[in-house]
Amino acid sequence: MAFAEPVTLTGRNWVVLEPLKREHADELLQAAKDGELWNLWYTSVGDPDALFSYIDAALKMRDEQGALPFVVRRKSDGRIVGSTRYFNVDAKNRRLEIGHTWYSRSVQRTGINTEAKLILLEHAFEKLNCIAVEFRTHWFNFDSRAAIARLGAKQDGVLRNHQVAANGTLRDTVVFSIIASEWPTVKAHLRFLLNKPRPSTTANGA
Predict the structure, then answer these.
(1) Phi-psi region of 110 (alpha: psi -120 to 50; beta: other; left: phi over 0)
(2) Tens digits of per-residue pLDDT, 124-171?
(3) What is the value of pTM for the model shown?
(4) Residue 65 phi, psi (nearest 5)
(5) C-beta atoms surrounding 56 within 10 Å
(6) d(Cα 175, Cα 106) in Å, to the nearest integer?
(7) 89 Cβ contact list (under 8 Å, min separation 6)
(8) Distance between CA atoms of 82 and 72, rounded to whole angstroms?
């Protein structure tokens, strides 16, 4: 049995996380077109021609490494608006990483990411009994770094020249984590963020 078995995670108000399938390809493509996310050089969102390869690589990571990729579905209209993943799963030490996360531009800075992270962390700490959950991002992905810190994760450090990107540049990777003893406080913080009044939204949820 895999450490992280496929599971659907449902938030209270914003999102449903469903295990990724190839059948989600068309909806994922529409989600990525909202903002043309493949043009952000510091992310790994596949362009339209590479979408099936992106999905196949995620499913291969699931089958061979115990990862669990999800699509992010907005509860209000059932539309897929992004993707996220459990990966770098270390069952022996009860650790995993949450990443490969991206969202349509129109739903960024809404409650979607906050609730998605809440239910992912809740499952990791309360069902999988993790002792730590990591987050990693590109040094130049300042929005991602701010979003991770806003969750309550603490920065562990920077891995210099950690990876060679597809465009040949060298990636410095910023590492954050939440440990089990911090989870009750982080959970309360995320609940607080979700309950804060938000500006009125447009029809598409932006």
Answers:
(1) beta
(2) 999 999 999 999 999 998 988 998 999 999 999 999 999 998 788 999
(3) 0.88
(4) -125, 0
(5) 12
(6) 27
(7) 3, 4, 65, 66, 67, 68, 95, 96, 97
(8) 5
